[in-house]
């Protein structure tokens, strides 16, 4: 069973953003499976790094759209992105040095953040893009 299910209430209405969010949910599920199955540190680290890189790329794509269409909520939205990237970066560094382990609470934090961010800031961005007729 998947850790986090994709649901239509997570769709923001922009095809590329939605596709990237689906991939993020899948990656979170892979991370959960790796933890549950007691996979080694290397595999968990690879998945964590993939997730971070993918997230950074995804945030850049959203931010590009915000700049292009002069999104009024860009400052607050970009700050939320920067906070998460920083937090995940700190976690990965601590994981790599053996100071912390990947636990359910870390996964819960990521799931919670993703849900709230998608249904909050990203949904508002999606509505804005839709109002401008942006579909790609
Ligand atoms: Fe976002
Ligand atoms: Fe997003």
Structure, explained:
The chain is mainly alpha-helical and 136 residues long. It has one domain (22-32, 40-131): Four Helix Bundle (Hemerythrin (Met), subunit A) (Up-down Bundle). The chain is 74% helix and 0% strand. The model has no long low-confidence stretch (mean pLDDT 96). One fe (ii) ion (FE2) is lined by residues 17, 21, 58, 62, 118, 122.
Global outline: globular
Measured distance between first and last alpha carbons: 32 Å
Topology as a string of helices (H) and strands (E): HHHH
Report Rg. Answer: 15 Å
Number of contiguous helices: 4
CATH fold description:
Four Helix Bundle (Hemerythrin (Met), subunit A)
Helix content: over 70%
Which residue ranges are poorly predicted, with pLDDT under 50 across at least 5 consecutive positions?
none
Give the name of the CATH architecture: Up-down Bundle
Strand portion: under 5%
Summarize the main sheet: none
The number of E-state strands comes to: 0
Q: Give the overall average pLDDT.
A: 96
Structural classification: mainly alpha
Domain module tally:
1
Q: Output the CATH homologous superfamily.
A: Hemerythrin-like
* Structure ligands: fe (ii) ion
- CATH domain class name: Mainly Alpha
